[in-house]
Automatic annotation (TrEMBL):
Organism: Tistrella mobilis
InterPro entries: AMP-bd_C, AMP-bd_C_sf, AMP-binding_CS, AMP-dep_synth/lig_dom, ANL_N_sf, ATP-dep_AMP-bd_enzyme
Protein name as catalogued: AMP-dependent synthetase
Domain AMP-binding enzyme C-terminal residue range list: 483-559
Residues annotated as domain AMP-dependent synthetase/ligase: 21-421
Length: 584
């Protein structure tokens, strides 16, 4: 199937996720849509639609207009899902906030987004109250868990006085108490669905403005392998596209259920899968070694998991699939700006059955392979070794290339920056919110520049090499060296900071290391630095390695030579590992 035919198929399936949701409500209203595992709460498409309509009406009664932004700042995945659909139904823009944020990071994003409404939790209310003097918020909706709710905490039930004194404060439970209907708003492929923030490398984080067709493109290949019988497992946060779009929103196109959880649990993952008969999931980096670290059991394959997307693809992917009876894995490249640029299907069992009949869900192997063939999805044998960084072949909907510093297209096996051009309208981000210069720069020479270094083989297979900019991946989060440095440099005793990635002690991603140059005459211990870091940044952003230096190495133009710092730290860590092994 050529690109034009695939695009026509994608558009025919529906560009707007809320249209697909309403279709699901009409065609199978009683089928289960959301299974909120934290509270054992199952909602059909019709029941969920009624709750969405009530919240959407409440938002419109607050004065919410089409294209207004709504920031959603919650740890509760049910509240995030309800809010996301209600925002879309009200014609507004979903703008989630990382629930780890506080202080400077939180204030920046709220100021940048300028939401008409903020939806948040009682336990996050103190973080909101702390920045009230720095941000303008017209309406604040607070989820205050009841004693029967799983996230109820008596110590955090009372809202801060500064928040209680604000006009425009609303209790979510009160808003939801009286069912009502919203004014339907028609949305199109080019209309803005979301503003999702991604880490800035040389400046503050940037809001990625995504049209509705972006969601369609991002989920198009993955949902082809789903049936209404499937259940998508989601324990990823809904402030990232992976959880919100790739897992939850995707279910609207196929009418299947979503098994929804607030966070990943390595000890309860398979029990959850079995309880909800979940068949599709995403495993990010350290999730894989955590699951594999459990003692093997005779019933490891007694589960309904049929397909898992692993990102980055671990070297042990085949071992994981064989142990837990997962017939297929997928690999690829997903990005907040470009969506699903690459995909590959990994056949982990071949002709051998992965599990007993009672645990099989959805399509059989022959159907899966035929779908891949029709879509032009690359299929590989899981038993065959794959080089590190394997991403598969480009989506036919996008033109991909490897570019040099002057945007010349490089040949096979030459390393350069990955770039995309959409073959059809509205497939990529529209812009970076409020950042026209950054938008123009990333689209220079009519290519979208991803900021990632890759290589391409002669047969058009792509492999990820490294991040090109000043950000790296830590525990599934993008960490910006700029943000780490900016936050640490607010300490009066710190003159300069250099943050950089080093290979993680566990998993395929990275750990954060910082080199600190103090103000002359000042002193600081590592414990003091860590205590300060914990007070100004999320836990995932705090450095694993801390080194104090007399001076940071710089070029003649005063740019910090981070490669020298990285080389010295890697040598030090290698020597320490060697000494530890010798001493055993």
């Amino acid at each position: 199937m050529n690109a034009q035919a695939l695009f026509a198929m994608m558009v025919q399936q529906g560009d707007v996720v809320t249209d697909r949701f309403r279709d699901a409500v009409r065609h199978h209203p009683d089928q289960t849509f959301i299974r909120y595992g934290e509270e054992g709460r199952d909602l059909s498409f019709a029941a969920f639609e009624a709750e969405v309509a009530t919240l959407a009406a409440a938002l419109q009664e607050m004065g919410l207009e089409p294209d207004d932004r709504v920031s959603v700042f919650t740890r509760n995945s049910w509240i995030a899902t309800l809010a996301m659909f209600a925002v879309w139904e009200a014609g507004a823009v979903y703008a989630p906030v990382n629930f780890n944020y506080a202080g400077r990071l939180l204030a920046y994003q709220l100021n940048d987004t300028a939401p008409r409404v903020l939806i948040t939790d009682a336990d996050l209310a103190p973080a909101v109250a702390a920045v009230l003097d720095e941000v303008r918020l017209t309406n604040i909706v607070v989820h205050r868990p009841l004693p029967s709710d799983h996230d109820h905490d008596p110590a955090k039930a009372a809202l801060p006085p500064a928040l209680l004194a604000r006009p425009g404060l609303h209790d979510l439970a009160e808003l939801m108490r009286t069912p009502r209907r919203h004014r339907p708003v028609t949305r199109g492929a080019a209309d803005i669905a979301n503003i999702i923030y991604t880490s800035g490398t040389t400046g503050p984080a940037k809001g990625v403005v995504q049209p509705f067709r972006w969601i369609n493109q991002y989920t198009f290949n993955s949902r082809a392998f789903l049936t209404p019988e499937d259940t998508i497992y989601c324990d990823l946060p809904l402030y990232h596209v992976g959880g919100a779009m790739f897992l939850v929103a995707k279910a609207c196109w196929t009418g299947c259920a979503v098994s929804l959880w607030d966070k990943f649990s390595p000890t309860r993952f398979w029990d959850r899968v079995r309880a909800h008969r979940a068949s599709n999931a995403v495993l990010l980096d350290v999730m894989v070694p955590w699951l594999m670290s459990a003692d093997p059991r005779a019933d490891d394959r007694d589960n309904t998991m049929m397909r898992v997307h692993m990102q980055p693809l671990p070297a042990r992917h085949h071992e994981v699939a064989q142990r837990f009876g997962i017939p297929f894995s997928t690999a690829g490249f997903g990005q907040t700006e470009s969506g699903n640029g690459f995909v590959a299907l990994i056949d982990q069992f071949g002709e051998t059955e992965a599990k007993r009949p009672e645990f099989r869900v959805g399509h059989d192997r022959a159907t899966v392979l035929e779908i891949a063939r029709r879509r032009g999805v690359m299929v590989v044998d899981g038993a065959e070794p794959l080089a590190k960084g394997f991403m598969g072949r480009p989506s036919p909907l996008l033109e991909a290339a490897v570019l040099d510093a002057d945007d010349n297209v490089l040949g096979p096996d030459e390393a350069g920056q990955l770039a995309f051009r959409p073959r059809f309208p509205h497939l990529l981000l529209k812009s970076y919110f409020n950042k026209p210069d950054a938008t123009i720069k990333t689209f220079s020479n009519l290519w979208f520049h991803t900021g990632d270094a890759v290589r391409r083989t002669e047969d058009d297979v792509y492999y990820f090499i490294d991040r090109m900019g000043g950000f790296f991946r830590v525990r599934g989060e993008n960490v910006s060296s700029y943000q780490v440095e900016d936050l640490l440099n607010t300490h009066p005793d710190i003159r300069a900071t250099a943050a950089l990635p080093v290979p993680a002690e566990e998993g395929e991603e990275e750990d954060c290391a910082v080199f600190i140059q103090l103000v002359e005459g000042c002193s600081m211990t590592e414990a003091e630095l860590r205590s300060f870091a914990a007070s100004v940044m999320p836990r995932y952003m705090t450095p694993r390695h801390v080194r104090f230096v007399e001076a940071l190495p710089v070029t003649p133009t005063n740019k910090i030579e981070k490669y020298k710092l990285k080389q010295s730290l890697l040598a030090e860590l290698a020597a320490a590992r060697a000494a530890a092994e010798t001493g055993r």
